Amino acid sequence: MSWLEALILGIVQGLAEYLPISSSGHLEICRQLLGVDLSGSASLEFDVMLHVATVLSTIVILWREFLPLCVSFFTFRRDDNFYYVCKIFISCIPIGIVGLCFKDVIEKFFDGNLTVVGGCLCATACLISFAYFFRTSPLQKSTPMDPAYKPREIGWLDAFIIGCAQALAVLPGLSRSGTTIATGILIGDRRESVAKFSFFMVIIPILGEALLDVKKIIAPSANAVAGAASGTVELIPMLVGFVAAFLVGCAACRWMLEIVKRGRMIWFAVYCLIVGIFCILY
């Protein structure tokens, strides 16, 4: 992998992790178009670096909210921040089950299949559109356009439902942020609260997946030793991808929070539909 390819993939990961356009789907599209073909261990190493970079960008942008959450949780203060973290853990239960039981099956089935990616992108477009029109139509009762409408904060059941949506988003092309935010809006939660919760709830699964991937990378096996010479990514492309994903992720995180607050996600539905059709035809 060249540093330019790593730069492109890092930018795509930083943007697509937060914008509702599916990071896994767009990374697969870019790999196909660029002809990037990494072996198993090399692909794991690079993906781990990109995902850790986006986690760090979440913490940097939302550090004013993140730090009190950590303090309350680890000191057992039993305040609102403590219970907020508990809700995050509840939201991670579905994705944890899927990741531990079905991760390898899903990866083998969907790897390199742009038709499936295109179909999932179209599904993302439909979900975002439904959330936008259903929750903003003046014909619906108790919507944001109704003066009496008051969106609620995320409850315990809401956290689990949003977590189930995140578990479905393991499919490449089905946007994690788009699915979780749209689900939260549909069940009546406040837009800005849903966006922040969506960004926080992905930290645990990403770090957990990164630990599992690191375990695979360092696992002593004959295959790993035999492929060590050709199955690694050089340091410069790795650093370029990491920095690109981190910096672009910081910008995309801020941008997405503002987009959700203003209720303008519908344009991403149009984008996902166009790209999805392109993938199916390609």
Q: Can you give a write-up of this model?
A:
Helix content is 76%, strand content 0%. The protein is built from 13 helices and no strands. Helix 7 packs antiparallel against helix 8 (176-186) and helix 9 packs antiparallel against helix 12 (235-262). The longest helix has 31 residues, at 80-110. Mean pLDDT is 84; it is low at 137-148 and 224-230.
Topology:
Blueprint (H helix, E strand, L loop, with lengths): L2 H14 L6 H12 L5 H22 L1 H12 L5 H31 L3 H23 L19 H13 L7 H11 L4 H11 L1 H16 L3 H5 L8 H28 L3 H16 L1
Helix pairs in contact: 1-2, 1-12, 3-10, 3-12, 4-5, 5-7, 6-8, 6-13, 7-8, 8-9, 9-12
Keywords:
single chain; 282 residues; mainly alpha; 13 helices; 0% strand
Quaternary arrangement of the chains shown? single chain
Shape: globular
- What share of residues are in beta strands? under 5%
Assign a percent range to the helix content.
Answer: over 70%
Briefly characterize the structure.
With 282 residues, this protein is mainly α. The chain has helices spanning 3-16, 23-34, 40-61, 63-74, 80-110, 114-136, 156-168, 176-186, 191-201, 203-218, 222-226, 235-262, 266-281.
